[in-house]
Amino acid sequence: MMLNYDAPLYRPPSEARSLIFQVTLGCSFNECSFCDMYRSKDYSERSWEEIKGEIDMMANYLPDTRRVFLADGDALNIDSEFMIKIVKYIREKFANIERISCYAMPMNILKKTDEELKKMREAGLDMFYLGIESGSDIVLKKVTKGAIAKTIIKSVNKAKNAGYIMSCMVILGLGGRTYSKEHIRGTAEVISACSPDYVGALTLYLENGIKQEFLDKFGEPFIRINDDESLEELYGLIDQIETNEENPIVFRANHGSNAYTIKGTFPQDKQAMLEKIQWMKQHPEIMRPQGLRGF
User: Fold this and answer.
1) Residue 4 lies inside a defined structural domain of this protein
2) 293 in a domain, yes or no?
3) How confident is the model over 185-209, as pLDDT tens digits?
4) Is residue 278 part of a domain?
5) Residue 179 burial (10 A CB sphere; 0-12, 13-18, 19+)
6) Using alpha carbons only, how large is the chain's radius of gyration in Å?
7) 167, 255, 171, 169: which is closest to 206 by C-alpha?
8) CATH number, domain with residue 61
9) 6 domain-assigned
10) How many domains is the chain partitioned into structurally?
11) pTM for the whole thing?
12) Alpha-carbon separation of residue 180 from 12, 25, 35, 139, 253 (angstroms)
């Protein structure tokens, strides 16, 4: 007995063992030039009857489920009362639930009132995955993110204040060689200004279907950074992130798109991570081969 997913289906790497319910299909924005995850779908919201039926079925089949991820890319776009109804029902049907999470765009968090966010949190929605991508307004505009640094910071802080765990993604190489320093400086500033609980660094990987759109929207010649420059960006990002022990950040650059892997927790592991990158520069043999990388 399996759920009849509307493909393609995506989830964050840390939700690999989670039960996934599609409460929305696709993405209501769907214009980020670096992302082709939902280009094959029109955005729609599923009915309560469909969602309830799947929850009931899986409660019988996998009653010990501990983690649930609500897909697709835009679950938080649904009405807050509807989200509360879904989350409460999941917690009612699965006795051992530890975490319910979903993707969240900055604009979706900002559209919710503080009261709505708190009510969803109290109902049992625990965690948001949010793409920062870059902290440079120039880069964010060139990749049609639909957000600027200020709104990203505001959205993460708003969700944190409502009690959510925040896991954020950034993309190395997103500004190309031209905007590399600005991209990294701005990204470190955004992370420092909102201290997400988790930050994951990916490396730009243009799928064939999206590559030309990305290059066209960029508006000027895009010069990809190489692996050495990617390592420089990673060093610069870690070096410029500032947080304190009251607001620790678990940092991971171990995604399949990355040439190099590094992990640690700010602030205590910052120096060790920088030293490891300096060591990596002398040991290119530990690099992940190109053929084994993907977004």
Assistant:
1) no
2) no
3) 999 999 999 999 999 999 998 866 7
4) yes
5) buried
6) 19
7) 171
8) 3.20.20.70
9) no
10) 1
11) 0.93
12) 26, 34, 20, 9, 17
